[in-house]
Protein backbone atom coordinates (compact mmCIF):
# COMPACT_ATOMS: atom_id res chain seq x y z
CA UNK A 1 0.00 0.00 0.00
CA UNK A 2 1.31 3.43 -0.95
CA UNK A 3 0.87 6.08 1.79
CA UNK A 4 2.03 8.99 -0.33
CA UNK A 5 -0.74 11.21 -1.73
CA UNK A 6 -1.14 10.96 -5.48
CA UNK A 7 0.57 13.85 -7.25
CA UNK A 8 -1.47 15.69 -9.89
CA UNK A 9 -0.39 15.10 -13.49
CA UNK A 10 -1.09 18.73 -14.43
CA UNK A 11 -0.38 22.11 -12.93
CA UNK A 12 -1.98 25.51 -13.58
CA UNK A 13 0.88 27.84 -14.54
CA UNK A 14 1.64 31.46 -15.31
CA UNK A 15 4.71 33.69 -15.68
CA UNK A 16 4.68 36.83 -13.56
CA UNK A 17 6.44 39.65 -11.76
CA UNK A 18 5.98 40.31 -8.05
CA UNK A 19 6.17 43.71 -6.35
CA UNK A 20 8.57 43.92 -3.40
CA UNK A 21 7.15 43.60 0.11
CA UNK A 22 7.37 47.33 0.90
CA UNK A 23 5.32 48.20 -2.22
CA UNK A 24 2.72 45.58 -1.28
CA UNK A 25 2.58 46.89 2.30
CA UNK A 26 2.02 50.42 0.99
CA UNK A 27 -0.95 49.24 -1.10
CA UNK A 28 -2.31 47.11 1.76
CA UNK A 29 -2.32 50.23 3.98
CA UNK A 30 -4.29 52.12 1.31
CA UNK A 31 -6.73 49.19 1.11
CA UNK A 32 -7.41 49.03 4.86
CA UNK A 33 -10.70 51.00 4.63
CA UNK A 34 -11.89 48.78 1.74
CA UNK A 35 -10.98 45.62 3.71
CA UNK A 36 -13.18 46.87 6.55
CA UNK A 37 -16.01 48.15 4.34
CA UNK A 38 -16.18 45.11 2.00
CA UNK A 39 -15.23 42.08 4.12
CA UNK A 40 -17.27 39.66 2.01
CA UNK A 41 -15.11 40.15 -1.10
CA UNK A 42 -12.70 37.28 -1.73
CA UNK A 43 -9.49 39.21 -1.04
CA UNK A 44 -6.26 37.80 -2.46
CA UNK A 45 -3.52 37.18 0.09
CA UNK A 46 -0.86 39.90 -0.07
CA UNK A 47 1.86 37.27 -0.55
CA UNK A 48 0.05 36.13 -3.72
CA UNK A 49 -0.07 39.55 -5.41
CA UNK A 50 1.57 39.43 -8.83
CA UNK A 51 1.55 40.94 -12.33
CA UNK A 52 0.80 38.22 -14.87
CA UNK A 53 2.87 38.36 -18.07
CA UNK A 54 1.58 35.11 -19.61
CA UNK A 55 -1.19 32.84 -18.35
CA UNK A 56 -0.34 29.35 -19.61
CA UNK A 57 -3.28 27.47 -18.11
CA UNK A 58 -3.31 23.81 -17.15
CA UNK A 59 -0.11 22.09 -18.31
CA UNK A 60 1.26 18.59 -17.86
CA UNK A 61 3.82 18.68 -15.04
CA UNK A 62 6.30 17.28 -17.58
CA UNK A 63 6.13 20.59 -19.51
CA UNK A 64 7.52 22.62 -16.62
CA UNK A 65 11.17 21.50 -16.93
CA UNK A 66 11.25 22.69 -20.56
CA UNK A 67 10.32 26.22 -19.44
CA UNK A 68 13.03 26.63 -16.81
CA UNK A 69 16.12 27.11 -19.02
CA UNK A 70 14.49 29.47 -21.53
CA UNK A 71 12.97 31.68 -18.82
CA UNK A 72 16.25 31.68 -16.87
CA UNK A 73 18.14 32.86 -19.98
CA UNK A 74 15.54 35.55 -20.68
CA UNK A 75 15.73 36.95 -17.15
CA UNK A 76 19.55 36.91 -17.21
CA UNK A 77 19.50 38.93 -20.44
CA UNK A 78 17.18 41.69 -19.20
CA UNK A 79 17.71 44.62 -16.86
CA UNK A 80 15.11 45.21 -14.16
CA UNK A 81 12.11 47.39 -15.00
CA UNK A 82 11.02 50.33 -12.85
CA UNK A 83 7.31 50.00 -12.06
CA UNK A 84 4.83 51.28 -9.49
CA UNK A 85 1.33 50.46 -8.28
CA UNK A 86 -1.20 53.14 -9.13
CA UNK A 87 -4.94 53.66 -8.72
CA UNK A 88 -7.57 51.00 -8.97
CA UNK A 89 -10.18 49.62 -11.31
CA UNK A 90 -12.28 46.60 -12.07
CA UNK A 91 -13.07 44.10 -14.78
CA UNK A 92 -16.80 43.45 -15.27
CA UNK A 93 -17.59 44.50 -11.69
CA UNK A 94 -16.24 41.09 -10.61
CA UNK A 95 -12.50 41.65 -10.20
CA UNK A 96 -10.82 44.50 -8.30
CA UNK A 97 -7.31 45.50 -9.35
CA UNK A 98 -4.57 48.06 -8.85
CA UNK A 99 -2.97 49.52 -11.94
CA UNK A 100 0.69 49.54 -12.95
CA UNK A 101 2.73 52.54 -14.02
CA UNK A 102 6.34 53.09 -15.01
CA UNK A 103 8.24 51.34 -17.80
CA UNK A 104 5.12 49.94 -19.46
CA UNK A 105 6.69 49.65 -22.91
CA UNK A 106 9.43 47.46 -21.41
CA UNK A 107 6.78 45.46 -19.54
CA UNK A 108 4.91 44.77 -22.80
CA UNK A 109 8.15 43.78 -24.57
CA UNK A 110 9.05 41.41 -21.73
CA UNK A 111 5.58 39.82 -21.87
CA UNK A 112 5.84 39.44 -25.66
CA UNK A 113 9.23 37.74 -25.33
CA UNK A 114 8.00 35.43 -22.55
CA UNK A 115 5.08 34.36 -24.72
CA UNK A 116 7.29 33.77 -27.78
CA UNK A 117 9.72 31.64 -25.76
CA UNK A 118 6.91 29.57 -24.24
CA UNK A 119 5.58 28.86 -27.75
CA UNK A 120 9.09 27.81 -28.91
CA UNK A 121 8.89 25.13 -26.18
CA UNK A 122 5.86 23.71 -27.98
CA UNK A 123 3.43 24.93 -25.33
CA UNK A 124 0.16 26.43 -26.50
CA UNK A 125 -1.84 28.67 -24.22
CA UNK A 126 -4.78 31.12 -24.38
CA UNK A 127 -3.80 34.33 -26.17
CA UNK A 128 -4.95 37.25 -24.04
CA UNK A 129 -3.86 40.86 -24.45
CA UNK A 130 -1.62 42.13 -21.66
CA UNK A 131 -3.54 44.50 -19.38
CA UNK A 132 -0.97 45.21 -16.65
CA UNK A 133 -2.64 45.00 -13.24
CA UNK A 134 -2.40 43.40 -9.83
CA UNK A 135 -5.55 41.46 -8.84
CA UNK A 136 -6.74 42.34 -5.33
CA UNK A 137 -10.18 40.73 -4.89
CA UNK A 138 -13.05 38.95 -6.58
CA UNK A 139 -16.78 39.37 -5.97
CA UNK A 140 -19.43 36.71 -5.95
CA UNK A 141 -22.25 37.47 -8.39
CA UNK A 142 -24.44 38.75 -5.56
CA UNK A 143 -21.73 41.21 -4.45
CA UNK A 144 -20.80 42.85 -7.76
CA UNK A 145 -22.07 46.25 -6.62
CA UNK A 146 -19.23 46.43 -4.07
CA UNK A 147 -16.41 46.28 -6.63
CA UNK A 148 -16.81 49.75 -8.29
CA UNK A 149 -16.79 51.67 -4.97
CA UNK A 150 -13.85 49.58 -3.75
CA UNK A 151 -12.01 50.51 -6.97
CA UNK A 152 -12.93 54.18 -6.50
CA UNK A 153 -11.37 54.12 -3.03
CA UNK A 154 -7.98 53.58 -4.74
CA UNK A 155 -8.40 56.39 -7.29
CA UNK A 156 -5.79 58.61 -5.62
CA UNK A 157 -3.34 55.88 -4.63
CA UNK A 158 0.17 56.15 -6.07
CA UNK A 159 2.82 53.84 -4.69
CA UNK A 160 6.54 54.50 -4.76
CA UNK A 161 8.53 53.23 -7.78
CA UNK A 162 10.37 49.92 -7.45
CA UNK A 163 12.52 47.68 -9.61
CA UNK A 164 11.55 44.21 -10.70
CA UNK A 165 13.86 41.65 -9.12
CA UNK A 166 12.89 38.29 -10.60
CA UNK A 167 10.89 36.59 -13.30
CA UNK A 168 8.58 34.05 -11.64
CA UNK A 169 7.12 30.80 -12.91
CA UNK A 170 4.08 30.30 -10.67
CA UNK A 171 1.70 27.41 -10.05
CA UNK A 172 -1.74 27.63 -8.51
CA UNK A 173 -4.18 25.25 -6.86
CA UNK A 174 -7.21 26.43 -8.87
CA UNK A 175 -9.50 23.48 -9.46
CA UNK A 176 -7.81 21.48 -6.69
CA UNK A 177 -10.67 21.51 -4.20
CA UNK A 178 -12.46 24.01 -1.98
CA UNK A 179 -10.84 26.95 -0.29
CA UNK A 180 -8.91 30.02 -1.30
CA UNK A 181 -6.71 30.16 -4.38
CA UNK A 182 -3.07 29.73 -3.41
CA UNK A 183 -0.02 30.44 -5.55
CA UNK A 184 3.51 29.08 -5.19
CA UNK A 185 6.71 29.83 -7.02
CA UNK A 186 7.80 26.87 -9.10
CA UNK A 187 10.99 28.79 -9.85
CA UNK A 188 12.23 32.39 -10.12
CA UNK A 189 15.20 33.99 -11.88
CA UNK A 190 17.06 37.22 -11.12
CA UNK A 191 17.08 39.94 -13.77
CA UNK A 192 20.48 41.10 -14.99
CA UNK A 193 22.44 43.99 -13.47
CA UNK A 194 21.26 47.56 -13.18
CA UNK A 195 18.72 49.15 -15.47
TrEMBL record:
Catalysed reactions listed for this entry: a 3'-end 2',3'-cyclophospho-ribonucleotide-RNA + H2O = a 3'-end 2'-phospho-ribonucleotide-RNA + H(+)
The organism's place on the tree of life at top rank: Bacteria
Functional note: Hydrolyzes RNA 2',3'-cyclic phosphodiester to an RNA 2'-phosphomonoester.
Motif HXTX 1 in this chain: 50-53
Keyword list, A-Z: Hydrolase
Active site, per annotation: 50, 133
EC number of the protein: 3.1.4.58
InterPro entries for the chain: Cyclic_Pdiesterase (IPR009097), RNA_CPDase (IPR004175)
Gene3D superfamilies xref list: Cyclic phosphodiesterase
Record family assignment: Belongs to the 2H phosphoesterase superfamily. ThpR family.
Segments carrying motif HXTX 2: 133-136
SUPFAM superfamilies associated with the record: LigT-like
Name of the protein described by the UniProt record: RNA 2',3'-cyclic phosphodiesterase
Amino acid sequence: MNDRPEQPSTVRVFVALAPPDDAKDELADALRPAYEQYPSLRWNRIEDWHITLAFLGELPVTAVPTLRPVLARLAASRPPLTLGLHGGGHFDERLLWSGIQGELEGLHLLADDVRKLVRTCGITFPERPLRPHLTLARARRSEQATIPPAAASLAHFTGHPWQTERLHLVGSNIGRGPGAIRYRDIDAWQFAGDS
